[in-house]
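Collaboration report, partner site 2.

Our partner group contributed sequences for two proteins of shared interest, and the home lab folded both. The records are reproduced in the order in which they were received, starting with the first partner submission.
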Amino acid sequence: MIDVSTLRRIPLFRDFTDEQLSQVLATVSDRRVPKHQFIVREGDRGDAFFMIASGSVAVCRVTPDGRETILSVLKEGDYFGEMSMLDSSLRSASIKTLTDVEIGEIRQDEFLGLIDRNPQIGKLLVIELSERLRAANALIAATTSQDIRARLASLLLKLAEQFGEPVENGTRITLRLTNQEMANMIGTTRETVNRTLNRFWDDRLVDMRTAYVIVTEPDKLRALVP
């Protein structure tokens, strides 16, 4: 669960002393959440801040036509829930587990107290939120301007960067996403993702002989992205 070493990996607390980290740890409540469960839902009241000790979650929204769109994937060392607490607004997105997850939760009054006592957190929050906004804008631009092969190639490269481990024939993506989940991330259908992945496999850009996708030709995948 959340411990001092976990806190050290979270950007908000990177400059904290051991004593400050211990003070933060005293405010944390640990939770375990099974795979494919919602931790928070869009529209909920934002009254807690969460840190991921292990596992991965999807940040998602439901479009007006009822389709789920995955905006991003967060993993160990990432955090979420800060925006609603800062402006007392409702949750702007849902968080759903992609794997079994261990998280640490800090209630709103405790988190705001941390910011009051440690102003550097506010600065780091602004930087992090700016980076997330740029990433969201890039995703929107890619989804609207690129064809499906380019979108999927871009997604696989990003997943390999976030969740990749080197193997003999390339980079294995250790996060197992269903074709539907990948479709939700790039704005298409499960069938289209399945066809495109099989085409990549035929072209030897990926290896799908195991349960995990292996990116074997990253340069050729990059060449598909405008």
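Second partner submission, folded after the first:
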Amino acid sequence: MNTSLDKRKVAKSFSRAASTYEEVAVVQQAVLTEHLDRLSFAKIEPKVILDLGSGTGTGAQKLSSHYKKSRVIALDIAQGMLQEHRRKLPRFRNKTDLICADLDNLPLENNSIDLVFSNLAVQWSNDLHQVIKELQRVLRTGGLLSFTTVGPDTLRELRDAWNSIGADDHVHDFHDMHEIGDALISNGFGAPVLDVDRYTLTYPDVKSMLSDLKRLGSTNASSERSRGMMGREMIDNLYEAFEKQRQVGKLLLTYEIVYGHAWIPAEDTRPQDGSTVAHFPVSEIKRRP
């Protein structure tokens, strides 16, 4: 990302959105379902699972149900999200621990996790290499990282609208699949496999689109953002710019989703076995800048 994130703002936005998040998390729930389906093919029996960026706990619940012998650590930066999660937990025989922390600085011991599951959270790191180093640190040898994150085409319609009125700092920049693959390899992960899917939401108007993003907690958290309220003129200009993109009576909003997994290889793994090569779908190779 070109600018750093204000983590206090991130935590505050998601905490405020916790009670409405699941009502509007259409793409997030669809990605979670697909992510869990892909994970089911991995041959792993984890004793300890880290759900990184656990949100309101839907993913952690499903992980706990599938891996019945596992302990699940649900970690999120937003206290409000964890409070929503806590309401769902059983009073007895609960095998889930809730931790409020930043994914860039995990309060976990080295080599303590067998599976890291992260659904649409890595993009909230200020440093891609730092968060991957942290995940490499806490994973045991043979451990698996399974994640999704958003790619650079995410919210491109909104970014284009802001850019057209000279306000280019309202939508975050996101890493592409190839940057993530390179970062995984350079930080000790073996044979990462990554691919991309896209989702498009339609809205009747700009107001409902911005309302949904706010209810998701996906607000501008750049440390360089303007602290003042947007004036009426800027809001009107944004609406007008977005209206020019209307297609067949609808406004579109794109989400580019990167799916990936990678393992912690044994210490004697050799480059010749392919563990230091990232795998991408052929259709995406030509898109690399």
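Feedback sent to the partner group on the second submission included the following. The domain at 7-154+172-200+255-282 is CATH 3.40.50.150 (Rossmann fold). The CA atoms of residues 23 and 215 lie 8 Å apart.
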